[in-house]
């Protein structure tokens, strides 16, 4: 066969349908074509390396593997060349027509096998990966010379139904290996831009086990853009801080310094390398509704996806990579997600990140404090979502409280400072710290020197509703149920100034309860109020007041519970009202409703009935003016 004897063959399957399925179902971005072609090139180099163990003459005078990307913007061409094992004509027909010859049905069978966990490693084999080139190219040429052979071969196709294969002129082929030439579509010419190619290679293929060089203009010397050595497989002793920082910036797309670096290798039943970073500042998409992670998954140093959810959503701020030696090189994100090996990796990575955060919190409180300031609100989502690790996460959380200004109080610190007789960890939730600090519900706790955690993130109302405990101490909202403060003595100053409770108060409380009727579930004397006259709390078995508001606002609560109105029996105003007895019943009825509306306002709500409130207030003013 001469160099002009190209044989044209028809694909045995509907290539158009195959490509449509691949582009729209297998791959979500066009950029992956470069990853696939470089992966194929790396596989060819690795295959030659193993073959050369038995036949070292195959390497000739060119022993070092390499991949070269050549950009030719003028002619709208992009080439990927390797010096690997190479192919002859028969191997080209077999390798480049695998999927087409096996038909769409067989292809789908292999996809299903991969989805079921079998090692149907399609990426890295010429076939699906190779055909991704047609997402950007209107024509593809492959020229190859097998190692140890003088003959060269060419394969060409436009991907529309047929391909041609036959001998190539030796001078048109690499000395050894394969060159894939893409004749780019008009809307894909930007793939010849050097900066774009360099970015894609570094992010998607920068860590294949073969160096990658770039030639960005005719006659220029190749410029190495990936050295073939993955940073994460190196010993930590070999890596400088600036190397970590450069890698962090490339993988995270940020320009700050990482706040923490987590680098380890897992061995045993599962082998994988992890290089992860906690950013020094909040990523812009930290509170994106998708709450998706940003860890990249590699398999044997070949990029697979950055959408594999390698850490739970409450650690979505972590950036970095996981490189598995055991996962199959599956072609779709869906297949990867369903692989049981991934669950084991996810569990191991999550535990390590949490353990390293705990060590940092113990050894460098200032550094951990900055991380908590940026990501604490996200980490607390784990208290609601990850029951298995709740205890571990509780050790990491930091809070503001009535005794500390910043969110720096750990639960261990809180428990160590509990008062004699105190049985619970008290907290209050809301959306504004200043309003919480001024809440009447805190008065009785403050009078006894009891610390109350002030929780101002929306997630706080959710995780505290799950009745957690820490060190055997339950969490208790100060706006829910009884305060149970009688066993904890008042501060000396508070106890000294405590007035006697007038005998008439019990009757007044009964009157208020009767007057308010179904608006409240109960009216009772308060042991939590020392300065204010009234406050509202939730019944013991009802939802916390703030949690109830959030659910109501989200339309997830059909009916709100009726609150309890607590009245301070020692307050001068209450004492004076109680002494009025049954005189002026209309006035006392107005007062009962105004006390309830006052409690609602103090709790961050509006009066129950704005018009009625206005009328009662007007009558009260008129009474005062006429007195």
Automatic annotation (TrEMBL):
Q: Name one Pfam family in it.
A: HATPase_c_3
Identify the GO cellular component terms for this protein: cytoplasm
What are the start and end residues of every segment in region (B)? 334-549
Q: Name one GO molecular function term.
A: ATP binding
Positions of the region C? 550-627
Summarizing the function annotation, the protein's role is:
Molecular chaperone. Has ATPase activity.
Task: Return the protein name.
Answer: Chaperone protein HtpG
User: Which species is this record about?
Assistant: Aquamicrobium defluvii
